[in-house]
Amino acid sequence: MFTAMNQDGECINLLFFHKRESLRELKEQQTFFCCHCYQPVLLKIGKYKLPHFAHVKNNDCLYTSKHESFQHLQAKKDFYEWLKRQLLEPQVETFISVIQQKADLLVKLNRQLFAIEYQCSKIPMQQIIKRTKGYLEEHIIPVWILGGLPYQKVVGEHRFQLTDFQMAFIRYDYKKGFYLFSYSPQNRQFHILTQLMPVSLTTVIANITQQPLYSITFPLLAHQLISTSMNNGFYEKWFQLRKEWIHTKLKYGKGFKDPFLREVYLHDQHPLYLPAIIGLPLKQMMICREHAIEWQFYYWIDNLRNLKNGQALTFKQIHENFRKRMEQRYLHLRHFPLIYQDVKDEMLHQYTQLLIRLGYLKEVKKRKYIMNKSIPIPKNMEEVIRMEKKLKLEFFAAKKTYE
């Protein structure tokens, strides 16, 4: 930690000292105590690690991390200097007694308090939820920043494997979709995964970019972090992985023991011969744990398959059918503690809008639709290839109208 009290009760902030000689003099002249538990702390001035205060061994302080890593200390220092350059007045390691929480940095912008929490060590999701709730109850907006890289490993072109802990830091923006950013003090850069789309429970297809810390201003809004749009190559990769997912499902899905395959077969369909509209990429679909092929198959079966041209369908019906599938445990939602919007309804709405742009539905009133043309079902692999090729061209044309 960077702050402690001296023997006179004065707060000492090590970030105010720029020379190690001054700190060595301070260490010789004063004794220091934790601002929270009032136990003695040591001023450590190593050759490589940043100067910091540390509790003596076997202390029982509940409010201070016992072993802050170099990465954590350096990130706090970076953010402190970054905020100061923006003429803000950040407070370091401020303890908020009402909720018994200590923020890495507390800063006010336009009369709104923000708490910056840099998290490079794994903690339970429930702790993130609890701390977030505590800040919000005190009208403080928490800004959680993941440490290191925003993924566990790269598993292919545009493909990244994430841990549950990393997924807890995912955010959502109405225009940009799901995104995840982290900060690396080693190169003073944010690493940003954008347009996250799940291809399995732990793997996403996404774009990755980097932004230097000083190219961005607080409070880290989505439009600052995300400056690139997805090109057709990104979506081509999605369509390739869509085919791979179907073949993998057939190989390892265990037939009728798999809920999705069972539903496909019970409705006299075959996974290889599904309509081309099933499994289309959307910015919102990270919210669903199941692959896009699964939830869009249920959308088609429950809402569209038996709908004749000119017959009506409402968004309320679409919403209700999705809810029933969730109750029956065919579909499940992911929980992201840093996302407060109802992304599920937005996902269903955007898929419906995409079907309108592709000409299959027509909106006659707000959120009321009619079937405009029938959805073709391929009968053999030649038709599958032809319909998928045609659908991709239509999708790319439709995409231009809403991106």
TrEMBL record:
Pfam family, one: CoiA_N
Competence protein CoiA C-terminal domain span: 236-385
InterPro entries: CoiA-like_N (IPR057253), CoiA_C (IPR057252), CoiA_nuc (IPR010330), Competence-induced_CoiA (IPR021176)
Leader sequence segment: none
Domain Competence protein CoiA nuclease-like: 68-223
Residue span, Competence protein CoiA-like N-terminal domain: 17-63
Protein name: Competence protein CoiA
Organism: Heyndrickxia ginsengihumi
